[in-house]
Amino acid sequence: MELSPLTVFALVINVLAAASVIVLVLLQHGKGADMGAAFGSGSAGSLFGSAGSANFLSRMTAVSATVFFASALALVMLTSPAKSELGVMKDLKQGSITVPAAPASAPKGEISN
């Protein structure tokens, strides 16, 4: 299967966005990290300071997630086959549907075991 250059581009963007989401999520502090910093555990002296990284990392994570979902949607649209008008009913000939008759073994109203 030969991939078009646009499909390869969307695939590369998708992989890079997925990797960046993973890295950005792992860089962020958990909810309990600030509680430990309040009691002097020493984790407050990070690269961006105690609260400076929250806005930057969360915004970058949101941007990366948006790029990931957009590139995934683009990959689906680029690699899906052409849509048929009839779908699964395309091979059905008109008038070939028959409805089976009700079974005559049990009289109406009776239940047989």
From TrEMBL:
The keyword Transport applies. Pfam families: SecG. One of its GO terms (molecular function) is protein-transporting ATPase activity. GO terms for cellular component: plasma membrane. Keywords: Cell membrane, Membrane, Protein transport, Translocation, Transmembrane, Transmembrane helix, Transport. It is found in: Cell membrane. It is a multi-pass membrane protein. The chain crosses the membrane at residues 6-27, 62-80. InterPro entries: SecG. Belongs to the SecG family. PANTHER family: PROTEIN-EXPORT MEMBRANE PROTEIN SECG (PTHR34182). Involved in protein export. Participates in an early event of protein translocation. This is Protein-export membrane protein SecG. It comes from Chitinilyticum piscinae.
